């Protein structure tokens, strides 16, 4: 692959490129699902190719190919240069990038058990057993389970001399029980909805989830939701479980801090951001206990946003996003870092595959743990609602106004969980919400959640992001609006 | 033997053009070889899909091109059957050794599972109705062509004191399917898309078109429309949320009703996750609502065969507001005692099938007539970030975006700040007062369909945002 990368860079230079970088990628994926006790999807996918990004005439061009021959790669590099020259016909200014060292390195994400070496029969047997546990519960009308494994090799080479190989192993797994009764469909998922938990780990992640113990619990909750009380509509105290808070961070912190959105580069599709440049170091984003970082380093955990180098050859970093409630930083790449006068990219350029241009993406955007024990947090809440496991999410295109609903809620009275609530939802304005945070649980309750399906870019790219979160409390939140009919 | 696409020399003249797709004989040869390899490896039955994509996309923002990409790839996907079990392996490595490895992976996956008593033998040779959705002029579009069109749109923005962002994409793709029982089908199409957002702080508006034929729309006219609406959207008033009469432009209709498509899958009803459970044959929507799935409609795109190679049939899903029919794969048809309709996904999968070519019946009301007939309401350009809140009542939430306009006494009197909605689609389709002509609509939440603009009463906006 290195020879092909060098060949691509040489061709690009000959054709007139002033800078070039190449990503060769080999992606292997295994997907297993079951439904109602039967195997659903059983598939293995392999994709290998090369993507070439060049600067010519001060503008960008990108082309990709799976024809991994000298001729195929040379044609692709020539196409990239030709596209860059076409871009220059409608360029706004010369592209300039913040400086970065070149690196020669090789890195592999740590894992204890290679999921591709675990027998398929064993993986399927676990899913089918969890499926059966859920189907035992009366009232359950649909059971679903899934596992996904990915092994990604990437080779990054740049005309400034970098040669970086990375290998990542990703695992994910989840189960869900659905119950249709009367005029309601209720669902519970474990350990998270929309596919479960994902991490930069091997099969040890699956073994840590204890699916068989949790399968009957979620199934019983799904059936019980039909007879639970409707979540009330009110302004009140809200406690969010960790996985839901992870998605709240993703939508109302992670996306608005993307510097390409801030600078208008996503205005047509993903949208822009309320975090205009004048807000940096000035905006009181949250209460003084709110601390958020974007941390791609392994020290932060084995999340979907963990790597050694981004797809622009910049080493993984930890960036303060919110420090003691103040807005302190953006996610940037080399180009946008230069545009706003930063000395260096924060290292967040990521690509879904060899055939996609790297764009600014979240790494692990996490709310740092607080000081509360979970039991103490519940005991300290006289009147509130605990919401767990996302059911729907939506936020405007500048990331001000959001609405989330969750699969299950619990009414808290006098410091105790007193009853189950169905159809819980809450909504608000981003900064008002984060400023209302008055309690964050400590590290013992903190999980680095994986969001495997974040869509952005044109052509669309799906990326995995990490979000560390522990259960937290918010005051004066609008609750129940989604099911209001007024 | 190698099946790499024809080698082309790199030349500056051709380098910015799209790639040439494989010829049909090459697809046939590729499938025949893979079937032969699978047979010699021990597969009882084999199905091969070949998909090829050659796409380009020019992206602009801040009145200039900032991303400009091209991709070309071929994948081969192999489903084998062995002793009542089936599985799939996909690769984009086209040499014989890699194909053999994919076949072996597929067999290994199949072998690892219990027998599937519901697995059907693969279908044999079929007859297909031809559709022509490959336009040479679209395939021939170059990066320079796209850049020049983008430049004109950006020049307009500069002239108007606005900021343009958007895409101009074009490409070609093809798919072929063949199996060991003699089935063979191919399809190729071109596609072109122009989308533009014009920003006039603090407002913005948007226009978008999509077609097999790049000459079916005029990027500059779309730019002009977005520019005019962006200017109208400045000085938006904050209104109190509540129930409004709305005039939904086709893109707004599409992105809402697009969420209904899977509810018409027979498998969704069998799994009891469709909003049509216990509602088939009942007057669910207004009697002015008719929905068909029609892959042959002149404004539709897509192949005339499904994931198993069955020909797609035209199906009337909703007739005068009453859900009448579902779509079926071979498996769900067998389970329900019905005939398959040619809507199955590639096997194995847990979702069964879905209608992918929805066509809503239209009317004859222009947007102007809808506005003129409205005492007080809101004109909605597009919707954004739509998600399902309640799967059975089909309550959807989302935001208005890029131009929400107040209509008073039969005319547009100004712009309004964006709202969040929480609205049942079932209720909405009971409340449709007027329908425009059905057009090919394109948005961001649903795949393209043929839908009309709609005037709807009692649409529920629950909260406002800050712009």
Quick gist of this model?
The complex is a heterodimer of chains A (486) and B (467). Chain A is an alpha+beta fold and 486 residues long.
List the helices and strands and how they pair.
The complex is a heterodimer of chains A (486) and B (467).
Chain A: H1 2-15, E1 19-35, E2 38-56, E3 59-65, H2 70-87, E4 104-108, H3 120-135, E5 142-158, E6 163-181, E7 184-190, E8 197-199, H4 204-208, H5 211-224, E9 229-230, E10 234-240, H6 242-254, H7 259-262, E11 292-295, E12 318-323, E13 326-327, H8 334-339, E14 349-350, E15 359-360, E16 365-367, H9 374-379, E17 383-395, E18 401-413, E19 416-422, E20 425-429, H10 430-435, E21 437-440, E22 447-456, E23 461-469, E24 472-479
Helix pairs in contact in A: 1-2, 3-5
Chain B: H1 24-41, E1 45-61, E2 64-82, E3 85-91, H2 96-111, H3 136-139, H4 143-159, E4 163-179, E5 184-200, E6 203-211, H5 219-232, E7 242-248, H6 250-257, H7 266-270, E8 291-293, E9 315-319, E10 322-323, H8 330-336, E11 358-360, H9 367-372, E12 376-390, E13 395-408, E14 411-415, E15 419-424, H10 425-428, E16 432-435, E17 439-441, E18 449-451, E19 454-464
Parallel strand pairs in B: 7-12
Antiparallel strand pairs in B: 1-2, 1-4, 2-3, 4-5, 5-6, 7-19, 8-9, 8-11, 9-10, 12-13, 13-14, 13-15, 15-19, 16-19, 17-18
Spatial order of the strands in the main sheet of chain B? 3-2-1-4-5-6
Largest interface: A-B, 100 and 104 residues
Strand element count of chain A:
24
Taking the sheet with the most strands of chain A, its summary is: 8 strands, mixed
Shape descriptor of chain B = globular
> How many whole angstroms does the radius of gyration of chain A measure?
23 Å
Q: What count of domains describes the coordinates of chain B? A: 2
Quaternary state of the chains: heterodimer
Mean pLDDT of chain A: 97
Question: Largest sheet of chain B, described in full?
Answer: 6 strands, antiparallel
Write down how many β-strands of chain B occur, each being a DSSP E stretch of 2 or more residues: 19
How many structural units, i.e. domains of chain A? 2
Provide a count of the helices of chain A: 10
Work out the helicity level of chain A: 10-25%
């Amino acid at each position: 692959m290195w020879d092909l990368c060098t060949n691509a860079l040489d061709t690009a230079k000959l054709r007139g490129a002033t800078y070039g970088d190449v990503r060769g990628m080999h992606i292997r994926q295994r997907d297993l699902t079951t439904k109602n006790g039967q195997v659903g999807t059983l598939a293995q996918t392999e994709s290998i190719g090369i993507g070439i990004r060049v600067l010519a005439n001060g503008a960008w061009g990108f082309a990709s190919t799976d024809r991994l021959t000298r001729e195929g790669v040379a044609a692709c590099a020539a196409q990239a240069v030709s596209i860059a020259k076409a871009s220059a016909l409608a360029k706004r200014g010369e592209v300039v990038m913040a400086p970065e060292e070149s690196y020669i390195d090789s890195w592999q994400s740590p894992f204890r058990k290679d999921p591709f070496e675990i027998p398929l029969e064993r993986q399927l047997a676990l899913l089918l057993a969890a499926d059966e546990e859920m189907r035992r519960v009366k009232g359950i009308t649909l059971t679903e389970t899934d596992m996904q494994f990915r092994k990604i090799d990437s080779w990054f080479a740049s005309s400034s001399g970098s040669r970086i190989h990375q290998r990542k192993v990703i695992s994910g797994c989840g189960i869900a029980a659905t119950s249709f009764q009367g005029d309601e469909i209720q669902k519970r998922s474990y350990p998270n909805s929309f596919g479960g938990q994902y991490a930069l780990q091997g099969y040890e992640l699956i073994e840590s989830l204890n699916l068989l113990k949790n399968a009957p619990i979620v199934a019983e909750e799904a059936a019980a939701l039909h007879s639970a009380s409707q979540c009330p509509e009110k302004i009140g105290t809200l406690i969010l479980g960790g996985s839901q808070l992870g998605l709240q961070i993703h939508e109302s912190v992670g996306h608005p801090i993307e510097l390409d959105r801030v600078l208008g580069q996503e205005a047509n599709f993903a949208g822009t951001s309320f975090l205009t440049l004048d807000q940096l170091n000035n905006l009181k984003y949250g209460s003084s206990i709110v601390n958020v970082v974007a941390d791609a380093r392994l020290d932060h955990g084995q999340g979907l946003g963990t790597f050694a180098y981004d797809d622009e050859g910049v080493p993984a970093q930890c960036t303060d996003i919110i420090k003691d409630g103040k807005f302190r930083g953006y996610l940037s790449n080399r180009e946008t870092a230069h545009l706003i006068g930063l000395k260096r990219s924060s290292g967040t350029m990521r690509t879904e595959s060899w055939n996609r241009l790297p764009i600014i993406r979240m790494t692990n955007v996490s709310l740092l743990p607080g000081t509360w024990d979970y039991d103490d947090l519940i005991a300290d809440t006289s009147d509130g609602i605990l919401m767990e496991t996302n059911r729907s999410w939506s936020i405007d295109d500048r990331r001000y106004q959001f609405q989330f609903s969750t699969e299950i809620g619990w009414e808290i009275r006098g410091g105790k969980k007193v009853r189950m609530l169905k159809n819980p939802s809450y909504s608000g304005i981003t900064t008002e919400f984060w400023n209302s945070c008055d309690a964050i649980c400590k590290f013992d309750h903190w999980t680095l959640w994986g969001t495997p399906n974040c869509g952005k870019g044109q052509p669309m790219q799906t990326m995995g992001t990490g979000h560390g979160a522990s259960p937290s409390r918010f005051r004066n939140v609008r609750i129940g609006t989604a099911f209001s009919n007024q | 033997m190698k099946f790499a696409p024809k080698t082309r020399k790199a030349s500056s003249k051709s380098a910015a053009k799209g790639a040439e797709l494989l010829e049909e004989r090459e697809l046939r040869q590729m499938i025949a070889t893979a079937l032969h390899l699978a047979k010699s490896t021990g597969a009882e039955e084999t199905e091969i899909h070949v998909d090829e994509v050659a796409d380009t996309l020019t992206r602009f923002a801040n009145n200039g091109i900032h991303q400009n990409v091209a991709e070309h790839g071929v994948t081969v996907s192999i489903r084998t059957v062995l002793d009542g079990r089936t599985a799939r392996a996909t690769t984009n490595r086209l040499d014989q050794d890699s194909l053999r490895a994919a076949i072996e992976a597929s067999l290994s996956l199949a072998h690892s599972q219990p027998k599937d008593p519901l697995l059907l033998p693969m279908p044999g040779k079929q007859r297909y109705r031809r559709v022509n959705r490959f336009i040479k002029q679209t395939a021939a579009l170059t990066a320079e062509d796209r850049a020049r069109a983008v430049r004109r749109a950006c020049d307009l923005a500069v002239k108007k004191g606005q900021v343009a962002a958007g895409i101009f994409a074009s490409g070609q793709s093809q798919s072929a399917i063949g199996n060991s029982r003699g089935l063979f089908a191919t399809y190729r199409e071109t596609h072109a898309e122009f989308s533009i957002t014009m920003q006039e702080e603090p407002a913005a508006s948007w226009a978008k078109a999509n077609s097999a034929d790049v000459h079916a729309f005029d990027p500059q006219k779309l730019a002009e429309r977005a520019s005019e609406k962006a200017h109208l959207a400045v000085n938006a008033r904050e209104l109190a949320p509540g129930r409004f009469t709305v005039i939904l432009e086709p893109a707004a209709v599409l992105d809402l009703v697009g969420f209904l498509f899977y509810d018409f899958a027979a498998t969704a009803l069998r799994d009891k996750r469709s909003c049509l459970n216990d509602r088939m044959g009942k007057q669910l929507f207004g009697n002015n609502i008719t929905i068909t799935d029609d892959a042959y409609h002149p404004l539709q795109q897509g192949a005339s065969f499904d994931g198993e190679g069955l020909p797609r049939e035209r199906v009337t899903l909703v007739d005068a507001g009453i859900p009448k029919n579902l779509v079926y794969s071979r498996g769900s048809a067998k389970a329900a005692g019905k005939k398959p309709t040619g809507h199955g996904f590639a096997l194995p999968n847990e979702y069964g099938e879905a209608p992918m070519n929805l066509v809503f019946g239209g009317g004859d009301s222009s947007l102007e007539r809808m506005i003129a007939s409205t005492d007080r309401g809101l004109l909605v350009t597009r919707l954004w970030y739509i998600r399902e809140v309640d799967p059975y009542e089909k309550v959807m939430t989302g935001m208005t975006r890029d131009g929400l306009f107040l209509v008073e006494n039969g005319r547009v009197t100004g712009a309004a700040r964006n709202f969040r909605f929480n609205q049942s689609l079932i209720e909405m389709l009971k409340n449709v007062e007027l329908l425009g002509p059905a057009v090919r609509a394109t948005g961001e939440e649903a795949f393209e369909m043929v839908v009309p603009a709609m005037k709807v009463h009692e649409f529920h906006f629950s909260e406002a945002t800050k712009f």
